[in-house]
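Ticket #4471: complex job returned nothing on first submit. Input attached below:
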Amino acid sequence: MNDLASEQPAWVIGIDLGASKIALGLVDPQNRVIGRRRLPTLAPAGPQAAVARMAAAVAELRQAAPDERCVAGIGICSPGPLDHRSGVLIEPPNLTGWRDIPLRQMVADATGLPVRLEHDAKAAALGEYYYGAGRGAADMVYIVVGTGVGAAMIIGGELYRGPHNSAGEVGHITIDPAGDRCACGNVGCVETFTSGPALAARYARALASRHAPQAERPEIIHGELVTQRAAMGDPLALGVLAEAGEALGTAIASLAMLMDVDLYVIGSSVARCGDLLLEPARAAVPRHCFRSVASRVRIVCSELGDDGPILGCAWLARQLG
Amino acid sequence: MNDLASEQPAWVIGIDLGASKIALGLVDPQNRVIGRRRLPTLAPAGPQAAVARMAAAVAELRQAAPDERCVAGIGICSPGPLDHRSGVLIEPPNLTGWRDIPLRQMVADATGLPVRLEHDAKAAALGEYYYGAGRGAADMVYIVVGTGVGAAMIIGGELYRGPHNSAGEVGHITIDPAGDRCACGNVGCVETFTSGPALAARYARALASRHAPQAERPEIIHGELVTQRAAMGDPLALGVLAEAGEALGTAIASLAMLMDVDLYVIGSSVARCGDLLLEPARAAVPRHCFRSVASRVRIVCSELGDDGPILGCAWLARQLG
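Support reply: We reran it on our side without changes. The output follows.
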């Protein structure tokens, strides 16, 4: 169960470092995001410059606390791979040129505050588990459905990382050996159905099969366009989302059969279309696992949205010291 | 790591209760099976009668120990579902008419020894982990490939049971949505490729497509016949085992991607055909997960065979008191 009693009632700062933007939030002892800052990452300018701008934003946010000395620490999350223990970014593919960056130490040096580093999906999972859709659950799987598909699993209150810290790669399990080729080199991965780029590719293909080839240029189609059109009732876009949801439900059924977890919280960009994706996923689950298991599975949207990683980082910051 | 130091150097007895036979073994302090007994289960005669015959065999085995007082306890395993904490068999489908049987207490009363009850696949996994193919590993998945397909997972030295004690149902994850109908009601489960009955059904179908319908009566085909013929070079049987191995490898790849475990030990009847099944499984893994993950995955045969459950039960018995 969520052990809220162990938390310190401190003010903390959460930082969500992404490929294109950095979101910072000042979080009060009641776990409300009181102040926010949003900066461009400008990854090619390098990590030193990014950390300097983060530190300036941290200084501004601290002034919004009752006393800037009451800010106890910082949690920061970023795309992996990273080593949460040593606080080092290894070589995130979305942050070109950043390699073996001791981010935790750099942020600590620049701000004078203690810092914890975590993978972004794991931070979002912790946020939902303690403050969002996972409140009160013992076990939860958080599934990112955005540019890629991945999962962070919380089992009995602990992140399940796996011995090589690489558990939860749900986007690349095979669910259809006759499926599309995936960027990973294999065929029929969940990500070839359910990611933003997969929605775009499948919608473009569906359009091409209906229209003259020049009716819509494929390069202007992206995942958000597909979800927008589905929301407006476009039957081709709805079909693409139904396939995406079926794939997501198949993967969740496999997770439920293997891990025996009941609650699946879906977040990130594609998840914003809500039930257009989640209803086909829920419908698929009983077709891919035991009925006794399916009857326990719940698939819900993230409650915290973009605040999930910030609140998860806030939780991590509260565990410091 | 396996914590051999915590074990008591006692003599113990392991009992593997199956649908058709009961195997008992007296295990010495060096974990050798010193004496064995094998009885028919005679399930329709009921659990009382079976326990009475087990107790008689236990009394015989104790006489083979240096001093019958040095036998410290009994571990017993059986098909599930069961509650290992209360020691109750719930309603095993293979033991018709046995329902809510307090087996642990019944065996303790009949023998005067302390008893622990565990699911048979989990006991076999513990046996391999401590004394067989898993020695020295931190994490291991044991996969039963027999009449059905299931798994028992040991993570950081602990059985991973899941919150409802139903983790590891690897036989019923979907790997091919265009596959065969499974006994569970769904389509394309691992078990429709890799179990003994699946080998028989697929071989019969392959024969029927090559020969006149009467060339071989399908009712005489069983899993062991298929593995025997494959061992003799029968190309149809080899093809069926190649498909079975591919399915097993796909499932292992999913487990590796989700759970991040490296070592997979394959046991039970179909696994006896060894590399005829395991080589196609190994070849399939890199086609269904990241190369970095595939490079770590090892798929090996059970080392202990039928002694696995008995030695796992012996380990459990050593944890008593």
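Residues 1-8 of chain B have pLDDT under 50 and may be disordered. Closing as resolved unless it happens again.
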